[in-house]
Each structure stands twice: as structure tokens, then as C-alpha cells.
Amino acid sequence: MSPRARGLLPILVVLAVGVLLIFTLQERYHQRVLTLVLLWATMGLAWNIISGYAGQTSFGHQAFFGIGAYGTVLLVLHLGLTPWIGMLVSAAVAVVAAALIGFPTFRLSGIYFALATLAYPLIFRIGMDFLGYQEVAIPMVRDRPGLYMQFTDPRANGLLCLGAFAAALLLSHAIEISRLGYRLRALRENEQAAEAMGVDTFRCKMAAYMLSAAPAAIAGAIYAHVILYVVTPDSTFGVLVIVQTLVVCLVGGIGSLWGPLIGAGLMVPTGEFLDASLGDRLPGIQGVVYGAALVLIMLVAPEGLYWRLRGLLQRGRVEAPSGAPAAVDMPARAAHLAGAAGQALLEVRGVARSFIGVQALDDVSFTVREGDILGIIGPNGAGKTTLFNVLNGFLPPDRGEVRYAGERISGLRPSAVCRLGVGRTFQVVRTFPQLTVLENVMVGAFTRTAAEREARDRAAAALQRFGLWPRAHARPGSLTTLELRLMELARCLATEPRLVLLDEPLAGLGAGSVEAMLGHIRRLPQAGVTVAIIEHTMYALVRLADRLLVLDHGRCLAEGPPADVTREAAVIEAYLGKRWLHRAQGLRA
Amino acid sequence: MSAADLVQYVATGLLVGGVYALMSIGLALIFGVMRVVNFAQGDFMMLGMYLTYYLAVGYHVDPLLGALLALPPFFVAGWLVHRALLARVTGSGDAQRQLDATLILTLGLSLIITNATAMILSPMPRAIRTGYATQAFVLGPILINQARAYAFLMAVLLAGLVYLFLTRTDLGKALRAAADEPEAAGYQGIDVRTMHGVAFGVGVALVAAAGGLLAMYHPIEPTVAVNFIVLMFVAVVLGGLGSIPGAFAGGLLIGLVQAVTLLVLPLQLQNTGVFIAFLLVLYLRPQGLFGRRLRTV
Question: How many Cα atoms within 13 Å fall on the side-chain side of residue A163?
Fold first, then answer.
């Protein structure tokens, strides 16, 4: 079965159970609780797209909920527009609002993003107050209740909410199995590694934010019509909306399809029951219970119930993949794309970069030729990693420029540099820890294909090539250092680079592993991949590299064939100190 | 509008801003040392208001003194909250996950405190009546409300003491060491966990005292927490997350922005100016007005 079909089955089962419940529950109160469960599960799924899959915690998602509620109601009020259409119009408005909000706000990351999102619903709220919409009642239309979403039969409300929930589920499922879904999870796990693997993190976050605004607005619109009847800034843009959403998602488990439903199924009836039985005497009891739920879940199972249960069910079971992966024709990149061996592929001209008070790179110029292995060597703090960060776009150079295949690449985003054909690995391996080894490599493969199937096949082939296929379904946390380094190399090669920047790929490897790694690197030029490699150990590099570049204090000390470079006085001095220089000269004389 | 009006608004803004500054310092200290964004900070402030209120009503304790009396019990309360809750989710590698966990934990705590307070003490707003709440110092054409003036002076005094504590005492230096380099501080024999407890306790005590001072001229009700936590976040971000002098300046600035907004916009839009200033700073200088941009690749 394809992943699409495999995922649809449980969705259909759950929806069938939902329909069954709607038609069997007799009491109006139970119907109401079911309606609320479905609504908050829908809102939870909306929030989950940006804050779960993409990991960008939004404390302001009620902005879109409120836009949905107010938009729909105001359209009914002023234009007599049916909420069935008004809801879609409001969802479109919410998507536009998400674009306008996201564009400046995604320049911020982590906690700054979360704090900034706090401000938006507050501004909307003040705005609604100011415009005189402190209380807007939905006008009753008795003759055509269906057209105006004013059902008297609670089952109709239930079906309406189930429909919204089904739409949110299908949207989430579609995201999960799409390239966007993989990219979102990758950037959540490690934003820089994702960028370096060709994921334009800014665009992905924007897409997720806009996609998550629409179901939030729909949930708000329906909430206004089946629960509220009178919308106020507090009940739509207020703190309780986001609290309810957070409780539902966090208790259920964020970043999962079923978490919001589990959380809503548990917390909404609890809250409603307490409110109904104790609400008169203790008006804040629901808030206390929700607060306690948040505290408890963070102490006991911070990943949420869904993941906790899944973990318990699958404990220690990592199925090895069956059989060999499907053979993939690796594109004959080497043949048709690569220029003639020996031509300049990467040209670095006068690159300088300083940090506060430190000149990390100072007028660095060199050329990497197609088919070569260039070794970059230098003592600690020589600027080697800074150089790679400039080359692949993590850092803009202060001066100078980088040209790749004749095109200027300095100033481009790392993802754009990667898509042009420059891959890199990191000094400390950067994995996407919650993704399997196969999925890690798939993120790289998605750079060249949008199809999940094809990315999977290509990633499998890359794993096979490095002997990692048996570990395909393991998580990176269980890999050895060599396996991790190989996984990162496989992920990098899955982006089909013409040039790879390898940052100390031998660090932390034992003697046997070093040989294995060297063998893999040595074979890269035959596959049409040019290599620039940073290494500390002169011994390893001299055997590997066609040319050596020596950096010291941000300057190019020497460049040329290893045999020449290792004889240069300045290099020996930088590496071994003056005393050794005299000795080496003495030996030669 | 005359120049005197402008001066009047600026003076009022600065006076109110002094109390904002004190409450923001508490939040900044906790973030600076522990990398924890404490959502419940507004609730501790609200509880500080209530303590001062009951001391004033029940025992005729002047709120200026009441605010000081709030310091010890809230230090203990903060210490205990750290021990019982936060220490269980911190100290495990991944900074981002830890930040998220503490954010949610303190949000839950905030919900509990706000709603439980409303349940136990009723949501009804209260006020402390003091002699000087309605008195004013007259400086030429400008009127300075006495309650605000005293609250401002006390807030600045406390903030100054915190600064001296952090820079001059061994404990303060150990706190800063634990903030800058937790691992190295650990090797120097500083118990980082204890330092986190101290930081959280001091941060909570400061915001409670600020609440006590605020209670001299602001209605006391459970929902006050939500409104003020946002202002504190804004002040702390304006000053550069975690910077104590930055948070102080940020608090003053917010008071000013609020006051100046009143000059051009109606009262219910008072905080719009604050939020817009907040977003502008985030877009233009996310490291804060006084912070330095940190970047790690």
C-alpha cells in the first residue's frame, strides 16, 4: 500500500466512529461536548501544522481563529452573505494575514518568534474594541436556518464540525507525506542542517504558517455559529482560545496527526464536566484544571500521550528493512553536467570576514578545480570552518566574492547554494534526531525531486552505497560515529552536488574507520563530485588530496600540491613551531 | 497641546515606567540565569498586589513597606516552585526543548494561579486607599502624583540594590557565572542548580514587590496578571533578552510609550503603541535595543 492509502484508512475509521457517535448520542449536552471536541481538535490540528510539524511555537494563533469568527459574522451582518461562503472568504483573509504577519516575523527564530506572536491577537483585540465590535450578535434567520448555519438539530452541528475536522485531518495527512512535511520536520530538528540540505527554511515556514491559518479560521467561524452566537474580542482573540489549543495539542502530543484529537477527547469533556458541575460555585475551575494538565504533562510525559503510547507499544523494536532497496538509476550527472576535469569549479576571490574584534578570514583567494580533492588544513582557529560557512552561504563575506561554475554565489541563502550543487557536512554531525536514518537522507534527496516515492528510492540507494541500508529505520541517536558521518555524507550526496564541502569528516573516528571514510571520499571524484575537505591531520590529507590549502590566522599561507606545500617553511612553522622549522631545515641541509 | 502637557505626560510615563522596570528585571534575571521564560511572572506580581493589599487592610501596613515585606515570602515561594517543578524539566541538554518545556510549565502555573485566585478571592477588583494616592507634588505647571512618585523611588532603589547584589557580592557573581558559562561555573564549585533556585526566587520576589508598589495606584484583580506579563515580555525583549540594565531601560521606555500614546490615541488603544514599538524593535533589532547579536553557526 502506498503511504497515502495507508494513512487514509485510520482517518476513515475515525470519521465513521464520529458519524456513529453523532447519531447515537441522545442528550443535547453530550452532543454539545462532542461538537466541542471536534472543534478544538480542528483548531489543534491547525496549530500543529506550524508549531508541531514546523516547530515554530505560535502563541498567537487565536488571531486567525478570531479572523474566522469575526469575518464570517460581519459578512453575515453587513452583506447578508451566507457563512458557508463567508467562512471561506474569512479563511482566505486569514491566509493573507498569515502571509503579512509571517513575512516580518519569521526573520525571528525560537523564543523571539514565540514572543512576537503574542502581540498580534492583542492588537486585533484592541482593534475590534476600537471599531465598536465589543459584542456582535449573529442575526437570527429563522426561515432558512441551513443557509445561515443556524441548525436547531444538534446532529447537524456535529456533522458540520466533523466535516471541518475531517478537512483538517486530510490537510495534515497530505502535509505529513509531502516534501513540505519532511522539510518542516527537518527544519524543526535542525534549521541550519536543513538549510544546508537545500531546504529554504523561510519559505517552508511561510507555507506552513499560511496553511495553518486556514483551518484555524474555519474553526473560529464554526465556533461562532454553533457555540457562541455572540462574538466578543475576548471569546475569539482571547487568551483562553490559545490556552485551549495548547492544552489539546500538548496533552495529546504535538507534531502528530492524532495528538489533537486525543487531547481534545480527554480534556474538553473533563473541562465541560467540571464547569457544569462545579462552575457555579468555583467559576475558574476549568482554568485550574487546564493549567494543572499543562504542568502535569510537562512533568510526566512532555512529548504528549500519543508519542508516549506509541513509544510504549514499539519499545526497542526497530524493524530492519526487508530486502535490498529498489535499484535507482543515479542520474548521470557526472557525464552531462560536469565540466571537463581541471576546469575551475569554485573561485574564491579576496574573501574577508571578521567577527567582533577577530579577523577570521583575511583576503583569502583560491580555486577548486573540477574533479580535484582540495585539502584545507590549518591550526585551530585558522578560519577553516568560517571559510566553509562563507562558501555555502551561512555567512556573507565582508569583502570579496565566491563564484561557483561561473556564477556568483556569495550572498545567496545556503539552500540556494545547495540547489546549485554545493553540498556540505558539519564538523559536529548535524542530524535530524527524530527522523529515521532513511528520512534524514530523504530530506537531501527532496532537493532534486518533489515526489515522496522517488526521494525514498534515491535515499535508499544512497544508504546502500555506504552500507547503511540495514540501519535505514533506526534513529540517528543509535548510530556509531562512523555511521553518523556516513549518514551525513549520504544525505549530502543525495542532494546531488557537484562540489562537496566536508568539514573534518575524520574527526572522532578510530583508525579502521578513518580508512573506510578515506576510501569513500577518494571515490567521490570518480562519481563526478569535486571535494573540498577540512582536516586537522596532515598525514591523512597528504594521502588524499590533490592540492592543499593552508590557512593560518585567516590568511592563505600556501597552496599547491601536497609535496610542495609540506616543504614550505611557513607551513612547518605554523604547524610545528619555530623549533621544528630549524630542525626540518637542518635535516634538509 | 502645550509643552507643559508634554512634560506632564513624559513625567507620568517615567514614574509608571520605574515600576515596570522593576518587574521586568525579575523576568530578565530569571531568563538571563536560567534561560527560562517565566509566564507565571505576572501572577506572582498579582499575588504581591494582594499580599500588600491584605497587609494594608488588615494590619494597616503602608504599601511601601508592604511591598518590601513581600520580598522574603515570595523568594521562598519562587525557590520552592523551582525545586518542585522547573528543576525537573531543566538541565537536560537540548536548549530549545528545555525552553519550550518551561514555557508551557509556567503557562500552566499561571493559569492555575489566576483562576485559583479568582475562585478563592473572587474576581472583584479592589484598591488600597492611602493618604497620598490622591495627593500630588506641584512642580510649577506639572503635577506629580505622590503614590506614583513614592512607588517610582522605591522601585529604583530596589533595582539599584539588585544591581549592587549582582556586581558586588560573591553570590551575585556566582549567579552571573552560572548564567554565562554553566558548565565552567560547575567546575569552579558553583552549584548551578542552587543558583537557578536563587535566581528564580529573587526574580519572583522582585516582581511581587513591584506588584506591591503598583497596588498603590492600580486596581487589584486576578486578571491583572495577563495584562502585565505581556508588558514585561515587551520590556525584556526591548532591553535584549536577559540583560538586567536593558530590562530596566525597557521598562522605563514602555511607561514612556504608553504615556505618549495617550497623547495621540484614545485610552483603549494605549497598549497599541507598546505592541507596535515591540514589533518594530523585534524586526529591526531582535537582539534588543541594548543587546548584542549572538550568532552561532
Answer: 9
Calculate ∠ Cα A387-A391-A395, nearest 5°: 75
Give the phi and the psi of residue A575 in degrees, each rounded to 5: -85, -40
Q: Would you say residue A564 lies in a domain? A: yes
Predicted complex ipTM: 0.91
Copy the grid coordinates of residue B105: 510549565
- C-alpha B254/C-alpha A74 separation (Å) is 34
Cell representation of residue B163: 544591581
CB atoms within 10 A of CB B215: 31
Last residue of a domain, one of A236, A251, A272: A236
Domain B3-284 has CATH 3.40.50: no
Closest Cβ opposite residue B279 in set A116, A130, A250: A116
Q: Do residues A574 and A557 make contact, with C-beta atoms less than 8 angstroms apart? A: yes
Hey, are the CB atoms on B85 and A110 less than 8 Å from each other?
A: no
A283 near B CB under 8 A? yes
pTM, full prediction: 0.91
Range of the domain at A534: 340-421+497-510+525-589
Count up the domains in chain A and report the number: 3
Shared domain for A186 and A38, answered yes or no, is yes
Q: Which of B31, B88, B98, B107 to mutate to test the interface with A (most CBs of A within 10 A)?
A: B107
Same structural domain, A456 and A480: yes
CA distance A257 to B153: 54
Report A:444-483 residues touching B (Cβ under 8 A). Answer: none
**Which pLDDT does position A334 carry in this prediction?**
46
- Alpha helix (H) residue ranges in A106-200: 110-130, 154-176, 179-189, 191-196
d(CA A499, CA A420): 10
| Same domain for A414 and A362 | yes
User: What does the pLDDT look like over B110-158, one tens digit per residue?
Assistant: 999 999 999 999 889 999 988 887 888 888 888 888 999 999 999 999 9
Q: Domain check: are A178 and A221 in the same one?
A: yes
How many separate helices (H) and strands (E) can be counted in chain B?
13, 2
Q: Do A57 and B100 touch (CB under 8 A)?
A: yes
Closest partner CB to A118 (pick from B118, B230, B292): B230
If DSSP codes are grouped into helix, strand and coil, which group holds residue B35? coil
Asked, for residue A29, whether it belongs to a domain, the answer is yes
Write out A552-573 in H/E/C secondary structure.
Answer: ECCEEEEEECHHHHCCCHHHHH
- Please tell me whether residues A154 and A88 are part of one structural domain: yes
Q: How distant, in Å, are the alpha carbons of A42, A103, A119, A507, A563 from that of A544?
A: 56, 46, 55, 15, 12
Grid coordinates of A444: 537531501
Rounded Cα gap, residues A46 and A38, in angstroms: 12
Which residues in chain B touch residue A192, judged by CB atoms under 8 angstroms apart? 297
Strand partners, A533: A375, A502
Task: Look at residue A356 in the predicted model and tell me its pLDDT.
Answer: 79
Distance (Å, rounded) from C-alpha B247 to C-alpha B250?
A: 5
Confidence at residue A499, expressed as pLDDT on a 0 to 100 scale: 95
Query: Do A283 and B123 form a contact (C-beta atoms < 8 A)?
Result: yes
Same domain assignment for residues A351 and A471: no
Inter-chain residue contact A294 with B118, CB threshold 8 Å: no
* Cβ–Cβ gap B111/A288 under 8 Å: yes
Residues 6+ apart with CB under 8 A from A474: A318, A436, A437
Residue B259 has pLDDT above 50, yes or no: yes
**CA A431 to CA A452: how far, in whole Å?**
20
Please indicate, yes or no, whether residues A59 and A97 belong to a single structural domain of this protein. yes
Surface-to-core class of residue A99, CB atoms within 10 Å of its CB (0-12 exposed, 13-18 middle, 19+ buried):
middle
- Max intra-chain CA distance, chain B: 61
- 252-271 in chain B: CB under 8 A from chain A: 266, 268-269, 271
CATH code at position A348: 3.40.50.300
